């Protein structure tokens, strides 16, 4: 199946982008595709469509294709994992491995050979197809360079340690990153004997087989991690792939859609609103929602809060029942200074709005970069995936955020209030805002002509020419 947006690629260099399963992996690849187009290159995004719940829906691809008509999308079927009861990480890995024949057929069907295959970090088995067809393969790493440094090192470090789940608050030390508590390491790798951990270690161990890694970050933000990667200390005994920091690549905040929250923000004073948004998986228990509400109310500050139904209610209610889930009278008492919306807000537009003064975030890397591009201070509330690690980078290494205590179990109302007041009222909050203003300035410099990220992208193209 071919989504709308297919066009002749002419004589331009052609890059095939290959995301892992799920919209969360597809969207960063679309941002990379836009970047390639801006440099006069042709792009085809190849999307695996297995017949199970791990798939990116054809509807999602069609929406992205309609919004980005210059990008070609190709949706192709692949077998589902033969182990339907397995952990999602294993099912995804199985499906991507089984998709190799379809990817091979797609690459062979192109009018001219692809100049490069750009892979998601989990699409490591596609390296075999690239090698068979003689197509240069690079990885696109959509998270922090610090995450990459850690992941490349884990296949060598983890065999020497107990399972992270048994280490608790013991510090894990990887090159290029500050010490991280074992409980903050990637959730899918907490048990070293589990199938999902073994799959992740296999994937991380294969990344160095690529010809290089494009990273969605910029030099100023992560000098320590980038030095470790450049010095080759993350992958002992093997060559480390060359790393090209080409970011930040983020949504420009212009969705074209209207949402009631944007009109509400227009009426608020500049830098006065605390924005709370936790992504598509950011659903809290009813007890946690109560604590957040009480903390926001006690803080006295304006807020915009996107609320989802608690996990235990997802199957019963498509939308959260705010009157029942939040403290009695909360919505009425805060009506003049707060807005609670159900499920979704246009995050990229909200963080860039002049009324936004702080961002309570789940620490997903794309959200972090959006906040940096807006110069918006962050309050870290990591929820899943690599976000415990990102929290450490953001608070200790980059110094662009503060941390909410207690996120491992239940964040109390008093902690919510204290951190909101810290960012919005105190001298420490002022210093944080100044740091974010500098981060934004450095990010803009990196992406200008002659900036570090543009230079790195040019070096990637030169590297590709040499190896081709």
Question: Can you walk me through this structure?
Answer:
Its EC number is 2.4.1.-. GO terms for molecular function: UDP-glucosyltransferase activity. Pfam families: UDPGT. It is an enzyme of class 2 (transferase). It comes from Urochloa decumbens. With about 475 residues, the protein is α/β, with parallel strands linked by helices. The protein is built from 18 helices and 15 strands. Strands 3-2-1-4-5-8-9 form a seven-stranded parallel β-sheet, sandwiched between helices. The chain has a six-stranded parallel β-sheet with strand order 12-11-10-13-14-15, sandwiched between helices. It has a two-stranded antiparallel ribbon with strand order 6-7. Strand 4, helix 5 (about 125-135) and strand 5 (about 135-140) form a beta-alpha-beta unit. The model is unreliable at about 1-10 (pLDDT under 50).
In short:
The chain contains 18 helices and 15 strands. It is of the alpha/beta class.
Give structural attributes.
7-stranded parallel sheet, UDP_glycos_trans_CS, alpha/beta, 18 helices, 468 residues, 15 strands, globular
Supply the helix-strand structural class: alpha/beta
Main sheet: which strands, in order across?
3-2-1-4-5-8-9
Poorly predicted residue ranges: 1-9
Give average pLDDT, whole number: 91
Kindly report the oligomeric state of this protein.
single chain
Our count of helices gives 18
User: In which range does the helix fraction lie?
Assistant: 40-55%
Sheet-strand content, in percent, reads: 5-15%
Provide the gyration radius in Å. Answer: 22 Å
User: Distance between the terminal alpha carbons, to the nearest Å?
Assistant: 30 Å
Tell me how many strands there are: 15
Biggest sheet descriptor: 7 strands, parallel
User: Based on CA inertia axes, which overall geometry fits?
Assistant: globular
């Amino acid at each position: 199946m071919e989504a709308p947006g297919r066009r002749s690629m002419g004589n331009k260099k052609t890059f095939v982008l290959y995301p892992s399963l799920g919209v969360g992996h597809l969207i960063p690849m679309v941002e990379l595709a836009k970047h390639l187009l801006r440099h006069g290159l042709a792009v085809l995004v190849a999307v695996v469509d297995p017949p199970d719940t791990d798939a990116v829906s054809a509807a999602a691809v069609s929406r992205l294709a309609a919004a980005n008509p210059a990008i070609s999308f190709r949706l192709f079927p692949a077998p589902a994992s033969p182990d339907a009861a397995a952990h999602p990480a294993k099912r995804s890995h199985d499906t991507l491995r089984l998709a190799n024949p379809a990817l091979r057929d797609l690459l062979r069907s192109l009018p001219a050979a692809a100049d490069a295959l750009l892979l998601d970090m989990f699409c490591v088995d596609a390296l075999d197809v690239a090698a068979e067809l003689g197509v240069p393969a690079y990885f696109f790493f959509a998270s922090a360079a610090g995450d990459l440094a850690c992941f490349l090192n884990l296949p060598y470090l983890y065999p020497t340690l107990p399972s992270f789940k048994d280490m608790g608050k013991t510090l894990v030390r990887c090159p290029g990153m500050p010490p991280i508590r074992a409980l903050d390491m990637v959730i899918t790798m907490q048990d070293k004997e589990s199938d999902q951990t073994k799959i992740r270690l296999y994937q991380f161990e294969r990344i160095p087989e690529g010809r290089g890694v494009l990273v969605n970050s910029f030099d100023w933000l992560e000098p320590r991690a980038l030095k470790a990667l450049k010095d080759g200390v993350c992958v002992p005994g093997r060559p480390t792939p060359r790393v090209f920091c080409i970011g930040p690549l983020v949504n420009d905040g212009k969705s074209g859609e209207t949402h009631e929250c944007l009109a509400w923000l227009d009426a608020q004073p500049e830098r006065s609103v605390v924005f709370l948004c936790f992504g598509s998986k950011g659903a809290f228990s009813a007890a946690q929602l109560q604590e957040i509400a009480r903390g926001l109310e006690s803080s006295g500050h304006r807020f915009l809060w996107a609320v989802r139904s608690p996990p235990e209610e997802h199957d019963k209610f498509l939308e959260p029942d705010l009157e029942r889930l939040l403290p009695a009278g909360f919505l009425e008492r805060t009506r003049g200074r707060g807005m609670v919306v159900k499920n979704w807000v246009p995050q990229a537009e909200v963080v860039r709005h002049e009324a936004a003064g702080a961002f309570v975030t789940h620490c997903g890397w794309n959200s972090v970069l959006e906040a940096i591009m807006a110069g918006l201070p962050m309050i870290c509330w990591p929820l899943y995936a690599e976000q415990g690690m990102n929290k450490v980078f953001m608070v200790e290494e980059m110094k662009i955020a503060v941390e909410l205590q207690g996120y491992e179990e239940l964040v109390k109302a008093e902690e919510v209030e204290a951190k909101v007041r810290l960012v919005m009222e105190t001298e420490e909050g002022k210093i944080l805002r100044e740091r974010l203003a500098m981060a934004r300035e450095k990010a803009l410099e990196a992406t200008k002509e002659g900036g570090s990220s543009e230079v790195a992208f040019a070096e990637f193209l030169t590297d590709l020419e040499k190896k081709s």
